[in-house]
Specification:
The complex is a heterodimer. Chain A is an alpha+beta fold. Helices cover about 35% and strands about 20% of the residues of chain A. Classes of the chains: A alpha+beta, B alpha/beta.
């Protein structure tokens, strides 16, 4: 775990919690192996394709639609698994540390999970987030962005010990995998990063080169 | 050119090219002579083989049927000649359609070995970076990289190689080396060749990152694009063997070598409805032997 001190940014590389129990670490490793082996969703919006639209409730009790967000400029979208996921909380905190840099480039940030508005509200307060969290409780938006993975029952059981919440149950459980997208204000995806291994986390500064390019194109 | 066999060969070529003058040129005839030979053939058959308009020559229904029967016969004759000679010696001419980069980097360096083996074969490389039409270009075989268009042509896979991204040390000194795929947004690409799409997907251990290619310079000739890469004008994308020489000389550096950006497949295409010429088959076997196993050694990353 490294802590980086930038000019005015102090933050920690997003990582998963330091799991003390060996048993728990093993079950995480098994879960990741199972996800990597499961079938990938047919597609996700790759760079150069139109970003699927959405209109979802936020942690502040309002609704936000994609076109309204894009009217303000480019958008960084993080799909995370839920507030119950320690690795996700770490990435959200890192994203918060860089949110100012993202805003400085004329862009905004949102994060989407299948948690409820109430759960998101608690999470945003816990982590002190300045950007909105959107509730995709049915998983339909995650589905359109290709981050909803179908897991078989055996895997879902193994994952259950991680206190994960799924959409659906029984034969086929659905779980989000982390996904990061940058959408230009013209509605096209310019960057997409989908990683089924949720223990690996993206550094928020990875977005800056793309945001710089989008800003230069607008000037 | 008075014999029946030559007349039939001419007929096949007129049908393929849709032009009396082009077919005549190929057979070293004047256009009026070619027209007369076909007219005589039509008289003998008591049927019209071609509809002639000012713009095109097309087969009649009868002509089409006749072509279907004649072609295999001519090919069988060629095969028989070849078999009777029995020494495996290829004769005549072989026209090969290729792109500039394949010709200069993959074929020319190996061609002398093939010519040594077949001293009586005349080879013509028809170099064009556009997709070549097998029939109208009258080539015996085309080597083509990338996806095959819908085609009835007979295809044989020649090889498959990883695609790589690369840049000149001079370019990297100026603009820095990308460490992650996301860094590429700060870079310039020279768009060319088979991978001149607008997006690249980088894959590693299940993670997929899709980025846009920011191209300020587009070049239709792949060979010129590689030279632009060597000159430091931007990042180039191509098959591993097409950059091998530059990697060995240090003129280009492979970027993001831990990431997989996909493969490119090369096919040999033969004109449809014909048995490939023995020379074309021998040539493709030679290409597979030389290139299909082309060493894909990892290059040191930057």
């Amino acid at each position: 775990m490294t802590t980086t001190k930038g000019s005015d940014i102090e933050w920690t590389d997003p990582t998963c919690p330091d799991w003390k129990s060996r048993e728990f670490r093993d079950s995480v490793a098994e879960a990741v192996r199972a996800i990597l082996k499961s079938e990938r969703p047919a597609r996700y919006p790759t760079a150069g394709t139109i970003a699927p639209s959405f209109d979802l409730p936020t942690n502040n009790g309002k609704r936000i639609a994609l076109p309204k967000l894009l009217a303000k400029g480019p958008l960084v979208v993080l799909f995370f698994r839920g507030g119950w996921c320690g690795c996700c909380r770490s990435e959200l905190s890192a994203l918060e540390a860089w949110a100012g840099e993202i805003r400085a480039r004329g862009a905004s940030t949102i994060a989407i999970s299948s948690d409820t508005q109430k759960e998101h509200k608690e999470l945003a307060e816990l982590l002190g987030l300045s950007f909105p969290l959107l509730s995709d409780t049915t998983g339909s938006v995650s589905d359109q962005y290709g981050v909803r993975w179908h897991l078989d029952r055996k895997f879902a059981e193994a994952h259950g010990s991680l206190r994960a919440s799924f959409i659906g149950s029984g034969e086929s459980a659905i779980l989000s995998v982390p996904g990061r997208f940058i959408i230009g204000n013209d509605g096209y995806v310019v960057y997409a990063d989908v990683d089924p291994d949720y223990t690996r986390r993206a550094m928020p500064y990875e977005y800056l080169a793309t945001l710089n390019l989008l800003q230069a194109q607008l000037d | 050119m008075s014999d029946q066999l030559s007349a039939l060969r001419l007929f096949v070529r007129v049908a393929a090219t849709g032009s009396f003058s082009q077919a005549a040129r190929e057979q070293n005839l004047t256009q009026p002579t070619a027209s007369r030979i076909i007219a005589t053939l039509e008289e003998q058959l008591g049927n019209t083989l071609f509809v002639r308009t000012t713009r095109a020559v097309t087969l009649t229904e009868m002509g089409s049927e006749y072509l279907g029967r004649i072609k295999p016969v001519l090919e069988a004759l060629d095969e028989a000649d070849h078999a009777v000679r029995g020494d495996g010696e290829l004769r005549g001419s072989l026209r090969v359609g290729v792109s500039s980069i394949v010709a200069s980097r993959l074929l020319v360096p190996h061609l002398s070995d093939f010519q040594e083996k077949h001293r009586h074969l005349r080879i013509e490389l028809v170099v064009d970076d556009k997709r070549q039409d097998l029939i109208s270009e009258n080539v015996d075989v085309v080597l083509r990289f990338g996806k095959l268009a819908d085609s009835s042509a007979l295809a044989k896979r020649v090889g498959r190689w990883p695609l790589v991204v690369a840049a000149a040390p001079s370019y990297l000194a100026k603009r820095g080396s990308p460490i992650l795929p996301s860094d590429l947004a700060a870079h310039i690409f020279v768009a060319a060749g088979p991978a001149s799409g607008k997006e690249i997907t980088f894959r590693r251990d299940g993670r997929e990152i899709s980025v846009l290619i920011n191209g300020r310079l587009a070049i239709t000739g792949a060979e010129v694009a590689v030279n632009a890469g060597i000159a430091g004008l931007g990042i180039v994308i191509g098959s591993f063997p097409s950059f091998q020489r530059e990697f060995e000389r240090g003129e280009l550096v492979r970027l993001l070598p831990d990431w997989d950006i996909g493969d490119i497949t090369a096919h040999a295409l033969f004109p449809s409805g014909q048995t490939p010429k023995p020379a074309a088959r021998a040539f493709v076997d030679f290409v597979v032997e030389k290139l299909g196993t082309a060493a894909v050694a990892p290059t040191p990353g930057n």
